[in-house]
Structure to design on (1026 residues):
């Protein structure tokens, strides 16, 4: 076992086995959301808990630790002198595996199993409580989940702020100390922009988007755009589910879902493009590193940057619709035949504070995220009790968006995340938007013909740029390092605000403020 | 650990974890046949191999053996004195688990992995070779699989005949010594019947079945029959696949598939009914025993008895079509509006030797099985080399059915089984037919109104009888014991031959010979 290459090979074969268990879990979850008969839910929850507990137990078993300790200095988490002969990618593989291992080992298998079971239960109660607008029904389950998250924080530990322990799960390296000033600047920029929007004399009308649109035609158009984006249907498929999502079992089997409503054109359309962006990332991960961190996506924020880049920077741009709007008109002549490109583009970019995050425009979307981030922070810092969340939600919504929900179903109950135990997840959505703006700006600088390509419906050059610069890297670099390698800059809100001011200024008839 | 109930509880929790792994495997396989994008095949094969190897390794780990040895006498394989306080069902659970364990332990994990991989490969080559009618292309893979089966026989051991080791996998307790005389009697009976058919002056015409039938209407009718049979769509679903099959992940999630051809009415119809019979068995297994042998189906022969009973004894009977033919006519007025019940029933029961097993009528079907059984036996007893199988196939077909294939695609290459390593499987199809006749005869005796119910389209009394007498038993009894408990008889070909003589005599106009 003295040869580092041999050690690495043995380690990879063990990681591959765990990857297979996780892929099987992912298929069970996909099936649950798309095809599983209603009666199969209970058995499925138990099968999933077994697979996940087993994957965790196998990962933290002594075998993997022993192998890692041959090549890693546990004090730094970096490759040690025995690993000198290995290439940089292998050293990154070791570093990331050690990071995952160190984290996983802090969590007892018994805790994983309890968390999995309670979240599965909480999710079912949440769905029912949301339907019935009944927060008190859901309260005990949410309290249990939050208590488990406190337990998790204790296991994981933290340097500065307990919330960091959760955040780090989804966005390695991110901290409250980093996010708060970033979000403060962003908030001010967005509120200024919102003020301009409110004062505009010529706000767009988006009622054309909510006529009756045949569902099969909507799906056909969604597929057409996915094809154009380079989403490979030989290695993927599109299904329907209540909430759109993307899942992958290997770069050769990456599946996206959408939903379709007859009276809502943007819902199916932008779900397809958004999930297509996620799908391209997963299809673009390096197959030769499958089973190791180098074959995995970097973070939720980077993943979200891919979906938001396609959905917003591309899918809500005039360049994109220059080519695709005539095609959309061909799908829906009575509804759109007489509509101009400008009117359609303006409708897609209408800004209006609303209660539901997933329906929010690009300006108010991140204000929704800040509401959630601040509530989560208050929860974890014990400044608010779980039972008082509905009130705090109304307060924050009023403060940030100027509106507040009457029903909890449109407020604190709207998102599934907390019932899944996913606290610390929401900020990655905003990070995704910020990364997207920086990546897209850079792509346009690197390839000066990119906007023209998009105007002509040629989306593959953009896909190739993303493949090369982001997807192929897996987890070889940290988010900050990747951003720096690709754009030469540190994370900043400026590119996002600048992009948004230009577009929204154009649509609302005010100059770049 | 001295309390047998505690030991049993611990054992069950370990078995449940293994069950979950196997269920996940089953979902991966189902998905592969129904929804997986074409590019995902290689990764899926590896994921499946991992799950199956892991399930096997967990089963033969010392933990389970230790628990079993507390309550089992390894000399007899039966519960020992320490298990005295347990009920009969628990003792049966121990007996069956020990039997599975003893068998699994003989097979090294490394062998399971090799077999899984070679079969996955052989299956792909087989599909291609069949398409191209190219046996030599497939020969090396088949030779490898057969060599592995010899290795498996060596691991498993046998008393009398090496083939028994394979047979026992699929039909516990069955032996060559038992099958040969049974098959000899059956063969003579079928050949006599075939002679009567050949001499008939009024053979039925089945061309009405091969008109153009809308595929959606065919599927709608298939679903209608599945509903009537009591197949629960809240705990199941119907999909399309190249080869129809049934799979279950729990009694609350049992899925059937069919295929549909526009010019072939029987294909989709009888696939639905056949798989529906399998599906009712899996939906009817006792949920409280899920994870243990008592929650599993008894054998492939018993499973096949359920599908064949519904497909043939019910689905090709005049009683069944008395109710359902008018409904079928409503689905296809131009094709069937002017056809009489008698003509339709006769067409469904036309007997004609043909090359393809899955399209065979009830008289010649078992002759196809005997061809395969004798070839497998010759292989395992080293009386024929793998390379000489195409010739032997032609000889046997000529001998049994009076016809021989020109192309290997219609001969030795037609079935997937050998590429899956499933040698010893085919005889269970004939056993299924024999069991089906005995069960159906008994059901009609137990419930004198059963045939009248079927004539009225009331299929639930039969489903309930099968639930009570067969499905609910799981593996509590052996096949022979179950047959004896239900019918008071030992396995015999007489009920099957008698049933067939009556029906075919009726259709072909000769009296019960």
């Amino acid at each position: 076992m003295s040869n580092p290459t041999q050690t690495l090979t043995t380690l990879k074969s063990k990681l591959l086995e765990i990857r297979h268990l996780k892929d099987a879990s992912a298929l069970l979850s996909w099936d649950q959301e798309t095809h599983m008969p209603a009666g199969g839910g209970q058995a499925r929850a138990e099968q999933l808990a077994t697979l996940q507990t087993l994957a965790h137990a196998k990962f933290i078993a002594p075998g993997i630790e022993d192998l890692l300790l041959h090549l890693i200095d546990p004090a730094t988490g970096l490759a040690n002198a025995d690993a000198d002969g290995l290439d940089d990618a292998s050293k990154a593989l070791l570093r990331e595996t050690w990071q995952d291992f160190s984290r996983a080992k802090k969590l007892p298998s018994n805790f994983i199993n309890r968390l999995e079971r309670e979240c599965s239960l909480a999710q079912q109660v949440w769905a029912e409580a949301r339907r019935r607008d009944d927060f008190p029904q859901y309260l005990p389950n949410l309290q249990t989940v939050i208590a488990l998250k406190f337990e998790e924080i204790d296991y994981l530990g933290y340097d500065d702020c307990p919330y960091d322990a959760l955040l780090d799960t989804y966005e390695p390296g991110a901290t409250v100390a980093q996010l708060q000033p970033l979000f403060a600047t962003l908030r001010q920029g967005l509120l200024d922009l919102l003020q301009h929007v409110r004062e505009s004399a010529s706000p767009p009308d988006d009622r054309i988007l909510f006529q009756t649109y045949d569902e099969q035609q909507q799906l056909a158009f969604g597929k057409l755009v996915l094809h154009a984006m380079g989403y490979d249907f030989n290695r993927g498929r599109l299904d329907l589910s209540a909430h759109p999502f993307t899942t992958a079992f290997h770069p050769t089997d990456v599946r996206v879902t959408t939903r379709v409503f007859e009276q809502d054109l943007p819902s199916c359309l932008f779900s397809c493009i958004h999930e297509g962006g996620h799908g391209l990332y997963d299809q673009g991960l390096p197959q030769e590193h499958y089973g190791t961190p180098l074959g995995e996506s970097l973070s939720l924020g980077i993943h979200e940057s891919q979906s938001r880049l396609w959905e917003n920077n591309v899918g809500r741009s005039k360049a994109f619709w220059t080519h695709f709007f005539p095609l959309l008109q061909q799908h829906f002549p009575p509804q759109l035949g007489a509509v101009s490109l400008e009117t359609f583009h303006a409708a897609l970019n209408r800004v209006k504070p609303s209660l539901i995050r997933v329906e929010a425009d690009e300006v108010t979307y991140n204000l929704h995220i800040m509401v959630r981030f601040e509530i989560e922070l208050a929860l974890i810092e014990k400044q608010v009790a779980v039972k008082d969340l509905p009130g705090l939600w109304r307060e924050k919504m009023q403060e940030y968006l100027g509106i507040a929900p009457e029903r909890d179903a449109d407020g604190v109950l709207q998102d599934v995340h907390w019932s899944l135990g996913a606290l610390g997840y929401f900020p990655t959505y905003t990070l995704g938007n910020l990364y997207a703006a920086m990546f897209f700006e850079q792509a346009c600088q690197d390839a000066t013909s990119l906007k023209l390509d998009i105007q002509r419906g040629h989306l593959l050059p953009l896909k190739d740029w993303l493949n090369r610069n982001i997807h192929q890297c897996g987890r070889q670099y940290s988010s900050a390092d990747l951003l720096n390698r690709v754009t030469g800059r540190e994370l900043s809100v400026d590119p996002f605000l600048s992009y948004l001011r230009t577009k929204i200024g154009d649509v609302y008839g005010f100059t770049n403020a």
